[in-house]
C-alpha cells in the first residue's frame, strides 16, 4: 500500500523516466499532492499498463496542489552524463512548483541538494510513496507522448512502441539507418561497439 512520507507537511515527490534509453530526453516530474490524497490504482509507473497510466495522469494533474515536468535533451545528456541530466531534470521540474517547499523525496539513491530544501533518497520509492508514484506516472506519460511525436519524424525506429529503449528492433534500425539527432551519442548504441564512430 502506498503512503505519504510525512503527515505534518506536504512533501514534494520527484522521479524520472527514460534514463536507460538510447534516444530522446530524460524526463522528470515533481509533484505535491494533498495530504489525504488516495488512489487505489496508483503505483510505480513501471508496474502499470499504458492504459492505466493514461487514466491516472488527468486525475493526478487535477488533484495535485502543483506539479512540474521537465525534459533534458540528448545534447545536454551527452555533455553532462545521464545521472547529472536526470538530477537536472528533477531540479527543473521542482522549479515549476508554486508552493512553499519543505521536504523533497526522491526515487533512487542519488540527488543533489535543491536550494536549501531538505531531501531524502528512497530506493524503489515509486513503489512506496504516493507522491513519488504520481511523479513517476507524469514523467513516463509526458516522455512517452514526446517519443510518439518523434516517431512521426523517424518512423523506422518505431519509437511509438519502444520509446527509445534499447530493444532488439530499435538496435536493428540503428544498424540499418544510423543515428538521428535524437540519439544519445555518448551511449553505447550497439552491443558490439565500444566506441561510436561518428
Automatic annotation (TrEMBL):
Pfam families named among the record's database cross-references: RNase_HII
Catalysis: reaction(s): Endonucleolytic cleavage to 5'-phosphomonoester
InterPro entries xrefs: RNase_HII (IPR022898), RNase_HII/HIII (IPR001352), RNase_HII/HIII_dom (IPR024567), RNaseH-like_sf (IPR012337), RNaseH_sf (IPR036397)
Cited CDD domains: RNase_HII_bacteria_HII_like
Keywords: Cytoplasm, Endonuclease, Hydrolase, Manganese, Metal-binding, Nuclease
Broad class of the protein's primary localization: cytoplasm
Cofactors (names): Mg(2+); Mn(2+)
SUPFAM superfamilies assigned to the protein according to its UniProt record, in alphabetical order: Ribonuclease H-like
Highest rank taxon of the organism: Bacteria
Similarity-based family: Belongs to the RNase HII family.
Full protein name: Ribonuclease HII
Top EC class for this record: hydrolase
Amino acid at each position: 500500500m502506498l503512503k505519504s512520507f510525512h503527515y505534518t507537511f506536504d512533501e514534494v515527490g520527484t522521479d524520472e523516466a527514460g534514463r536507460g534509453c538510447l534516444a530522446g530526453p530524460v524526463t522528470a516530474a515533481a509533484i505535491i499532492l494533498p495530504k489525504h490524497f488516495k488512489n487505489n490504482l496508483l503505483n510505480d509507473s513501471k508496474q502499470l499498463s499504458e492504459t492505466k497510466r493514461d487514466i491516472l495522469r488527468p486525475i493526478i494533474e487535477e488533484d495535485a496542489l502543483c506539479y512540474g515536468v521537465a525534459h533534458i535533451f540528448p545534447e545536454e545528456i551527452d555533455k553532462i552524463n545521464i545521472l547529472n541530466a536526470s538530477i537536472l531534470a528533477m531540479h527543473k521540474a521542482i522549479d515549476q512548483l508554486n508552493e512553499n517547499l519543505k521536504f523533497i523525496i526522491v526515487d533512487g539513491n542519488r540527488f543533489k541538494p535543491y536550494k536549501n530544501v531538505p531531501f531524502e533518497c528512497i530506493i524503489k520509492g515509486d513503489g512506496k510513496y504516493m507522491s513519488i508514484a504520481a511523479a513517476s506516472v507524469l514523467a513516463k506519460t509526458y516522455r512517452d507522448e514526446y517519443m510518439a511525436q518523434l516517431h512521426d519524424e523517424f518512423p523506422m525506429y518505431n519509437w511509438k512502441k519502444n520509446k527509445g529503449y534499447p530493444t532488439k528492433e530499435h538496435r536493428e534500425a540503428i544498424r540499418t539507418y544510423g543515428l538521428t539527432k535524437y540519439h544519445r551519442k555518448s551511449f553505447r548504441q550497439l552491443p558490439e561497439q565500444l566506441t561510436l564512430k561518428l
